[in-house]
Every structure is written in structure tokens, then in C-alpha cells.
Design brief:
With 229 residues, this protein is of the alpha/beta class. A 6-stranded parallel sheet has the order 3-2-1-6-7-8, sandwiched between helices. It has a two-stranded antiparallel sheet with strand order 4-5. The chain has a two-stranded antiparallel ribbon with strand order 9-10. α3 links the parallel β2 and β3. Helices cover 32% and strands 26% of the residues. It folds into 2 domains: 190 residues, 5'-nuclease (Rossmann fold, 3-Layer(aba) Sandwich); 26 residues, no CATH class. The protein is built from 7 helices and 10 strands.
Length: 229
């Protein structure tokens, strides 16, 4: 038995793999426990799935309030469907004006040509994920940490786990499409270098087999799949 905790970078998973697909209403427990880990390590027993994200801002989202409501419904569904197994940690976004170089084809960025823009940054999500991975590994009670992210911000945590908790295995699941490499998107080598094992993509069939019920019962009214998802 391999006691395993899965850590999911929610935004990385959404924008790198789920956006533009019919699989957004994703049951992360079914995907990672019953699909990915069952194939990679049949002895794995998932003791927790920790999902890291930040609240959508309606005034910035493509569909405005509908995008914000969709995320709210989804997080409610995750918590209710697998109560006690899924944990959700939220960061936040900051909006501030800044100046950035203007894009000119076939030229390198230059401070001589700058444009005033809004800078939107997601805060705390990545650092909370990385620190949680490291803390869990050092506390014991886990044999394997599995991170779903292609973001190099997680690399320092992986390095420290290897140094300070060498008996803990590090699994890496890239939230990429099978054809990602052909589109110029590849697995982050800084992350793969630290992992015990790597899954380089997630298949459509695995996502399709891991969908939540359209209406998930909660203690209040059901959490329902958004119509535009």
C-alpha cells in the first residue's frame, strides 16, 4: 500500500488541459485515483486530494458573472461529492496598472516602446501548493506525493522533498493534451528532473470517464453543471 496525496494546480489544469473541452465538470478523485494512479501505481491509496485555485473575478472573466458562478458551482460539487477526501485552498488575484514593452514582430522587447496595461496576478496559490507538499512529506503519514502541474514554481518543493524526505516518492502528472508537443507545449524539464515518475499527458478518454453527476447533492441546494460547460 502506497499512501498517496495528490496536489492539483487548478488553474494550470484548467487552462492547459480542460479549456475548450466538454470535460470541465471533472471529478478529480475519479481521474487521479481510478484512472491515472490505478495505471501508474496500483498499490496507491489516495488519502487526500488537495486542490489549489483562486476565485474567478467576474469583471475580468470572459463570460463575466457566469464564469464566476461556474467556478463556485464546481468547487461546491467537488467538496460535496467526495466529502472528506477533497480539500480546497484558495489564493487571490490582484489587479494593478503597469507598463510593458509593446510587441513588435521580429524584434526583441524594448523599454523604449511601452504600453500602459493592467497586470493581473494570481497570488499565494503556487506557494501554498509547494509549501503543503513539503510539509506533508516531512510530517510523515504519506509514502508518495503526486503533483498535477507544469509550473516550475513547484520545483523548489520537489528538490527539498528529495533532500529532506528521500523515502517519499514524487509523482508528476502534466496537465497536457496528448498532442501538446506538436503544438510546442512540452513537459517542464525542471520538474521532470526531480520526479520519481512522470505522466506527460492526460487522455480525453480518462477525462470523459471522470465526470461528476450533472447535479451533485449538497447540504443546501444541488451544485449543478453550468450550461456553458
Amino acid at each position: 500500500m502506497t499512501r498517496t496525496i495528490v496536489y492539483i494546480d487548478g488553474y494550470n489544469l484548467y487552462y492547459s488541459r480542460l479549456q475548450g473541452t466538454p470535460f470541465k465538470w471533472l471529478d478529480v478523485v475519479a481521474l487521479f485515483r481510478d484512472q491515472v494512479l490505478w495505471q501508474q501505481d496500483p498499490s496507491a491509496v489516495v488519502v487526500a486530494i488537495k486542490y489549489f485555485t483562486a476565485p474567478v473575478k467576474a469583471n475580468y472573466a470572459r463570460l463575466g458573472p457566469a464564469s464566476e458562478q461556474a467556478q463556485t458551482q464546481y468547487l461546491r460539487a467537488l467538496m460535496a461529492h467526495d466529502s472528506g477526501l477533497v480539500e480546497i485552498t484558495q489564493g487571490f488575484h490582484i489587479f494593478q496598472p503597469t507598463s510593458l514593452p509593446v510587441h513588435v514582430p521580429d524584434q526583441m522587447p524594448s523599454k523604449a516602446q511601452r504600453q500602459r496595461v493592467w497586470m493581473i496576478e494570481e497570488k499565494l496559490t503556487d506557494v501554498q501548493l509547494a509549501l503543503t507538499v513539503y510539509r506533508d512529506a516531512l510530517r510523515g503519514g504519506v509514502d508518495q506525493v503526486v503533483v498535477c502541474s507544469n509550473d516550475s514554481d513547484v520545483e523548489p518543493a520537489h528538490k527539498l522533498v528529495r533532500q529532506d524526505a528521500p523515502d517519499v516518492r514524487i509523482g508528476l502528472v502534466m496537465p497536457l493534451r496528448p498532442d501538446a508537443k506538436g503544438q510546442g507545449v512540452v513537459s517542464n524539464k525542471r520538474l521532470t528532473a526531480q520526479a520519481t515518475w512522470v505522466r506527460h499527458h492526460i487522455m480525453d478518454a480518462e477525462l470523459a470517464a471522470s465526470q461528476l453527476p450533472t447535479h451533485v447533492p449538497t447540504k443546501k441546494k444541488p451544485a449543478s453543471k453550468p450550461a456553458h460547460w
